């Protein structure tokens, strides 16, 4: 199948689109490999070879981070195509999708009777289960290919593996799993109740009478091995063949993973793997530019002393390198002379370095600027509570660049504590080979604050805090043991410092959203807890100007008031004392709250798009005193 960029698209005539998709949704919900429902059909979004490209997006830090991943070395960023509202526009740009799944259920509730099947004793009304090749045009003629054509709907069950491959279920082999497939096979689907429960959905073959409840099918797909470790010999449970329908039906060789039953509309059917950075000025870019201007004059120097000599002899060199030390200039000359790549810091390490230092050059608002931040005065530290903070920075303007690097199914994949993405083999790629990735620029505002480092270090050494820290480590170990990832995750987040910052961030988002003009789901967090420093950035970002209303900047100027409200929210939950008594489960088999302490929907859980860690690693106990304990709280 050709992978050339395509423009023709669907011939709409009088048909109107089923809906609209924003650019931000393309890189989060409807990227390559996503399953999309239409009114009368369903599809899977095609790989990037079948997309038209939008404008180029330049963000060197994000591209450099992606280039550290195998197969992503040459990628560039482009916005998704902007589509004209004129359906007859010949230059209209498209994102292609392939029809998937290829099995359908007839929507005529009298399909069984119209097909001259014998009456059912249970008064059930099965409907034909049809492959795409069995359809009569766009529907099903229930009366033996005669009469009125009934509508059909795509079946809601498919199968997939943890590496993102997805395929139709072999319904005939599944129903006839206990004997040879029927030669007079006619498949029917019977949904006995309106609830959609799997136990009420039965697949039947009217040729031989074999049937199977979907609840049993789900168990078969989940029970990959028996107690002896031997694999089930069920035809539909064979190893994954690596089908990639978003790439036009190509097959990835050597997958061999176990297939699992998947509902197309389930929340775990598609997790976008996003990489994002906050655009910040590169402090070394000015150095590189100024050395480049006089490189021909200084490229032969052997030491910093010769740089100093050239300053005295050459006015051009003196003017270009003014304010730059001889050592820094010499190091840049050596880098260029030896053709070494520009050293890039980790994503969050570079961001927090700027936020903690906030050089004066960033405090001046520039026309069409992309980052504008300034440290506010220390007047807020007059209150005893605020002495636990060391710095507050308001950011009237920032830009977040977010790119879609791939996707997963069943389990989400997120960045590490430094904001770096380890893609690995468990992430399905949006195209093969990769040449570009869809990205969006989100414009917004926010504020940043850091906690007092000496107070944090002293708090981490307290016995109650260390005990809580060990509970999270033990809970993480049990949680990790229940996963079958090819590459295990690190326990960077399962420590008291990150849990404190993450929990405080959630409390602040709830408190801030009541006054700042943004809903809680519009505010995002960025937690810094790596080697570069610790802090919290709360910001709002959207593709347009909606994220620049000034509400979060005003919150930053009055951080003392909102911090007090946040801590008050954390002291008592509507579900206390039950919520306050929660701790990370460190005993296998007790429950599945391995990564959560005192947290629930009444206190700490927020909208998942706002949270970096999918509402995990949360514990009020480390932030404020609760009805259960006060010994581990940072704010007392």
Report on this structure:
The chain is of the alpha+beta class and 636 residues long. Among the domains are: 285-337; 347-622, no CATH class. Helix content is 23%, strand content 20%. The chain is built from 16 helices and 24 strands. It has helices at residues 23-26, 60-67, 111-114, 171-175, 214-222, 285-293, 295-298, 304-313, 315-320, 326-337, 347-357, 453-460, 463-481, 496-513, 551-557, 559-571; strands at 35-37, 42-45, 56-57, 76-78, 97-99, 103-106, 127-131, 140-143, 146-150, 152-154, 157-160, 166-167, 187-191, 201-205, 211-213, 243-244, 250-251, 260-263, 271-278, 372-375, 389-408, 436-451, 523-530, 533-542. Strands 3, 4, 19, 20, 21, 22, 23 and 24 form an eight-stranded mixed beta sheet that branches. The protein has a six-stranded antiparallel beta sheet with strand order 10-6-7-13-14-15. The radius of gyration is 29 Å and the shape is globular.
Give the mean pLDDT.
Answer: 84
Number of helices: 16
**How many strand units?**
24
Strand content: 15-25%
Helix content class: 10-25%
- Measured distance between first and last alpha carbons: 65 Å
């Amino acid at each position: 199948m050709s992978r050339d960029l395509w423009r023709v698209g669907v011939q709409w005539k009088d048909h109107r689109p089923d809906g609209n998709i924003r650019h931000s949704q393309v890189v989060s919900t409807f990227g390559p490999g996503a399953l999309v429902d239409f009114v009368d059909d369903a599809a899977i979004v095609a790989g990037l070879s079948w997309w038209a490209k939008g404008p180029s997006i330049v963000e060197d830090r994000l591209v450099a981070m992606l280039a550290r991943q195998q197969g992503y070395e040459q990628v560039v960023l482009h916005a998704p195509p902007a589509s004209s509202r004129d359906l007859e526009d010949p230059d209209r740009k498209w994102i292609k999708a392939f029809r998937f799944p290829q099995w359908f259920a007839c929507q005529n509730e009298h399909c069984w009777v119209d097909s001259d099947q014998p009456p059912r004793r249970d008064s059930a009304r099965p409907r034909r289960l049809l492959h795409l090749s069995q359809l009569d045009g766009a529907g099903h003629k229930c009366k033996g290919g005669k009469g009125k054509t009934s509508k059909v709907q795509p079946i809601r069950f498919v199968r997939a593996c943890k590496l993102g491959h997805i395929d139709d279920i072999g319904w005939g082999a599944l129903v006839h799993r206990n004997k040879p497939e029927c030669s007079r096979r006619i498949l029917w689907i019977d949904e006995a109740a309106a609830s959609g429960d799997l136990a009420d959905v039965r697949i039947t073959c009217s040729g031989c009478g074999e049937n199977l409840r979907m609840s049993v099918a789900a168990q078969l797909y989940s029970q990959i091995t028996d107690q002896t470790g031997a694999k089930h010999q069920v035809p539909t449970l064979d190893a994954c063949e690596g089908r990639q329908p978003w790439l036009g039906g190509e097959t990835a060789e050597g997958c061999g993973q176990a297939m699992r039953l998947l509902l197309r509309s389930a929340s775990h059917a598609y997790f976008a793997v996003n990489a994002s950075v906050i655009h910040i000025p590169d402090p070394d870019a000015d150095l590189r530019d100024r050395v480049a201007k006089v490189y021909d004059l200084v490229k032969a120097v052997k030491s910093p002393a010769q740089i100093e000599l050239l300053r005295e002899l050459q006015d051009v060199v003196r003017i270009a390198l003014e304010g730059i030390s001889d050592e820094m200039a010499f190091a840049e000359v050596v880098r260029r002379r030896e053709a070494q790549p520009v050293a890039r810091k980790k994503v969050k390490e570079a961001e927090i370095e700027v936020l903690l230092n906030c050089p004066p050059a960033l405090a001046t608002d520039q026309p069409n600027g992309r980052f504008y931040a300034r440290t506010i005065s220390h007047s807020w530290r007059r209150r005893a509570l605020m002495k636990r903070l060391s710095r507050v920075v308001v950011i009237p303007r920032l830009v977040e660049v977010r790119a879609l690097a791939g996707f997963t199914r069943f389990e989400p994949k997120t960045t590490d504590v430094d904001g770096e993405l380890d893609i690995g083999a468990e992430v399905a790629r949006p195209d093969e080979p990769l040449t570009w990735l869809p990205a969006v620029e989100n414009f917004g505002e926010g504020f940043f604050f850091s906690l007092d480092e000496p107070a944090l270090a002293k708090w981490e050494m307290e016995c109650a805090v260390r005990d809580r820290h060990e509970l999270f480590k033990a809970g993480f170990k049990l949680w990790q043991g229940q996963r079958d990832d090819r590459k295990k995750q690190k326990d960077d987040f399962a420590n008291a410092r990150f849990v404190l910052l993450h929990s405080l961030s959630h409390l602040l988002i709830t408190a801030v959203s009541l006054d700042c003009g943004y809903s809680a789901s519009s505010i995002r967090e960025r937690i810094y807890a790596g080697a570069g420093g610790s802090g919290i950035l709360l910001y709002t970002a959207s593709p347009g100007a909606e994220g620049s209303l000034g509400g979060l900047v005003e919150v930053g100027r009055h951080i003392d008031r909102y911090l007090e409200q946040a801590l008050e929210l954390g002291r008592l939950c509507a579900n206390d004392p039950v919520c306050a008594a929660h701790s990370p489960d460190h005993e296998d088999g007790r429950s599945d709250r391995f990564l959560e302490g005192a947290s629930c929907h009444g206190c700490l859980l927020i909208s998942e798009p706002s949270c970096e860690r999918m509402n995990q690693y949360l514990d009020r106990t480390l932030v404020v005193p609760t009805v259960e304990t006060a010994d581990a709280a940072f704010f007392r």
